[in-house]
Amino acid sequence: MYAFFILFGLVSLLIVNIICGVISEKINKEKGYDGGFAWGFLLCVPGIVVTAVRPYRQTNETRNNTVIDVPHIFWCTGCGSTFSSNDSRHTECPTCKCKLKETTIPREDWRRLSDVEKLQLKKEFANGKHIKSSLYNDNNKEKTDSSSFSKADEIRKFKDLLDEGAITEEEYERAKAKLLS
After folding, report:
1. pTM of the complete model beyond 0.85
2. pLDDT tens profile 71-127
3. How far is C-alpha 17 from the geometric centre of its chain's CA atoms?
4. If residue 85 lies in a helix (H) or strand (E), which one and from where to where?
5. Using CA atoms, how far apart are residues 132 and 102, in angstroms rounded to an integer?
6. What are the backbone dihedrals phi and psi of residue 72, each rounded to the nearest 5 degrees, phi first?
7. What is the pLDDT of residues 4-50, one digit of tens each?
């Protein structure tokens, strides 16, 4: 008789843990994360609370079939100014009428940065970092100004790749010969 109650209790506990795991995984998925079943299965209600208080991970994607548009910072290729906009079709600088590029930096994150950090990011934008490439196809890409990079800088980059093991000695020598010719 006791064995029946123990077995009934264990099966009930297992069913409750599975239900909590499924709920936790569903909440996690809605917030843009993978998994989450273990949180609910192992911790039950506290696991559901942990997944429920996590922030939404998705930006510019769909959540429940509605588009979430997170405003990003746009960088002007001409004057180097930055602008924020909710419209990803914003393509022209209001100041100098040059092409704007949307960055991967959300406006809220930009506001939290110090002036020094913003200046560093603007330099990185100029080098093509943190730029959303999905907005620009090959026809719209601007040509890189080859005079802004010296041959020595390029050779150093290839040497670093060689030292990291990303390229072979032969590839390094070929790239170096091509740059020097």
Report:
1. no
2. 778 888 888 888 776 555 567 787 788 888 888 888 878 888 888 888 888 888 888
3. 33
4. strand 82-85
5. 6
6. -115, 170
7. 889 999 999 999 999 999 999 998 888 777 888 998 899 999 988 98
Q: How far apart are CA 171 and CA 176, in angstroms?
A: 8
3-state SS string over the chain? CHHHHHHHHHHHHHHHHHHHHHHHHHHHHHCCCCCCHHHHHHHCHHHHHHHHCCCCCCCCCEECCEECCCCEEEEECCCCCEEEECCCCCCECCCCCCEEEEEEEEHHHHHHCCHHHHHHHHHHHHCCCCECHHHCCCCCCCCCCHHHCCHHHHHHHHHHHHHHCCCCHHHHHHHHHHHHC
Query: Nearest-5° angle of CA 96, CA 123, CA 131?
Result: 75
* Residue 123 confidence (pLDDT): 85
What amino acid occupies position 19? I
Enter the tokens of residue 76.
């002007």
Q: How far apart are CA 134 and CA 72, in angstroms?
A: 14
Residues in the chain: 181
CA 64, 69, 70: angle at the middle one, nearest 5?
125
* Cβ burial, residue 40 (10 Å; 0-12/13-18/19+): buried
Place of tokens 């506290």: 46
